Amino acid sequence: MPRPPVFHIAGQAHFVSTNTYNFLPIFHDPAYADILVANLAFYRKHYAFKLLGYVVMPTHLHVIILPSAKASISQVMQRLKEYSAKQIVALAREKGQKTLLSAFRMAGQQTSRAKFKVWQDGFYDFNLYTEAKLREKLRYIHNNPVKEGLVSDPVEYPYSSCRNYLLDDHSLIEVDTDWFW
Q1: Alpha-carbon distances of 23 from 75, 93, 107, 121, rounded to whole Å
Q2: What does R_g of the chain's alpha carbons equal in angstroms?
Q3: In the prediction, which pLDDT does 44 show?
């Protein structure tokens, strides 16, 4: 199925999903989830985009981003995936996780573009053209850990913006919740 077109319309947020290669459950390990969140925080500041929501699931990431003029959603995702992958591979080496490194190496060989591959190519992007759509996707993000059986209440999941919205807890990463009322 062809990828739907991505529209770069000023003032529209994007719901973005991206998966680990072969759906490896890398982010079950908090050390790897922390790498992804740290990269998200870095690029949020570097590219001055608004982060409206996120969830780091074991095999994938969902984010809601309102891009700035500094970078397109494609540029943000390219850098986020590129540098988080390098840090994830480095941590796997440091931890001596040979099985994980072997999976990354095999993925890299299959695509013949990189020595190691952590992420699937590309990402899914959906323009959020109304506040109702934005709220719908935010609910989806926050309920994803419950749906997957990781927690019984979305606020219990540490790698989600649900805690930012419901508990005003921005200790893990700053989320732009000021639009929400």
Answers
A1: 23, 20, 11, 12
A2: 16
A3: 97
Dihedral angle sign, alpha carbons of residues 164, 168, 173, 179: positive
Class of residue 41 by CB neighbours under 10 A (exposed 0-12, middle 13-18, buried 19+): middle
Domains and CATH numbers, the chain: 13-167 (3.30.70.1290)
Query: What's the Cα-to-Cα distance from 116 to each of 28, 31, 70, 103, 129, rounded to whole Å?
Result: 20, 19, 29, 8, 36
Give pLDDT tens digits for 94-118.
999 999 999 999 888 887 677 899 9
Q: How many CA atoms lie within 13 A of 85 on its CB side?
A: 24
Beta strand segments in the chain, E: 13-19, 50-56, 60-66, 124-128
Could you tell me what percentage of the chain is helix, strand and coil, using 3-state DSSP and rounding each to the nearest 5? 45, 15, 35
- Specify the pTM: 0.91
List the structure tokens of 105: 């190496």
